[in-house]
Amino acid sequence: MAKKRPQTKASTAQLKDGPVPVVGPREPCPCASGRRYKACHGRSAAHAVTELVQRPFEGLAGECDWVALRELVPAATVGLTLRDGLPDGVPSVTLATVLPMAWPALRRDDGSVLLALQNDTSSGDLSRDLADTLRRALTAEPGSPVASERAPADGPRLQDLLDPAADFNPVVHSGFEFWVPDAENATAEVSASLERANEAAIPTVLLAHSDAAYWCETPTKNHLRWVMPYPEEKLLDALARLHAAGTSDLGEGTRLVGSFRAHGLTVPVWDLPSEMGAEACEKPATAFAERLTAALAVDAPLTGDERRARGGLTNRQVTLS
């Protein structure tokens, strides 16, 4: 049910001065000491890890789509609006699922910024780590990637940097050509990374009439993965009521098979026939949303059949984060 993330390879610069980038624990430390990172600067980094924030995107516009782009969608972009406006020389800031060479961010030649969402981060607060990367990208030299660094524990979070009133409208892409303005003239390294990423990407479509509902195609069957904003226990009760009543599907040949847990939200997942495309999901998904709203409003205790249905759904949960 989960997507395949593009297989990209991070580059590690050897630095003797300034902040030390974060790398894998068994990789050579970027400070050029000759020791592994975990035995050098990684030792202090381990002590600096903050307590895990369960819902790092809470309070941001489009929280459900943030979760989907972080965990489920291979290739997508979203234009971001900063709370204090764009700095001089930065024409735009764009959130991307991933960037070539697993760069955390990129300042393009024209000064625009791309911020990657799916990179590993060094602390338990994804929002703070991304905000730190964004701040450094805004002042990076045009034409240069931004390396991973440990975010200060008292640094700002995305909620501090982004305009809370701005729309969050993901654009899902069929490939990663958005990485470079002119893919034909990209460097060999970026071209190779682009080719690997495109080969690994699962075709994905955002439904037009259902918030944060993403159709995807796999070789044997299709799926609908729908990130929902409701409290987990209440949502599972509602899904159990529908499941017990035989109304949790999206039409003939479809089946609610379980759910993901991701960044504090629940993501119900349906199996779909291979011939059922994204457009064919629109009306059934809208009808299901109406049934779910009614089920969420029921406060009565679950019946025996509903409790058994809930147990089955709970047993088929997979935690992504």
Task: Briefly characterize the structure.
The chain contains 8 helices and 12 strands. The protein has helices spanning 41-48, 63-71, 126-138, 158-161, 188-200, 232-244, 278-296, 304-315; strands at residues 76-80, 93-96, 105-107, 113-116, 144-146, 171-172, 204-206, 213-217, 222-226, 255-262, 265-272, 317-319.
Secondary structure layout plus pairing:
Elements: H1 41-48, H2 63-71, E1 76-80, E2 93-96, E3 105-107, E4 113-116, H3 126-138, E5 144-146, H4 158-161, E6 171-172, H5 188-200, E7 204-206, E8 213-217, E9 222-226, H6 232-244, E10 255-262, E11 265-272, H7 278-296, H8 304-315, E12 317-319
Parallel strand pairs: 2-4, 10-12
Antiparallel strand pairs: 1-2, 1-6, 3-4, 3-5, 7-8, 8-9, 9-11, 10-11
State Rg: 21 Å
Shape: globular
Low-confidence segments, given as residue ranges, are 7-16
% residues in beta strands: 15-25%
Mean pLDDT: 90
Helix/strand/pairing category: alpha+beta
- Distance from N terminus to C terminus (CA atoms, Å) equals 15 Å
**Main beta sheet, described?**
6 strands, mixed
Number of strands: 12
- Helical proportion, percent range: 25-40%
**What is the spatial order of strands in the main beta sheet?**
5-3-4-2-1-6
Number of helices: 8
Q: What is the succession of H and E elements?
A: HHEEEEHEHEHEEEHEEHHE
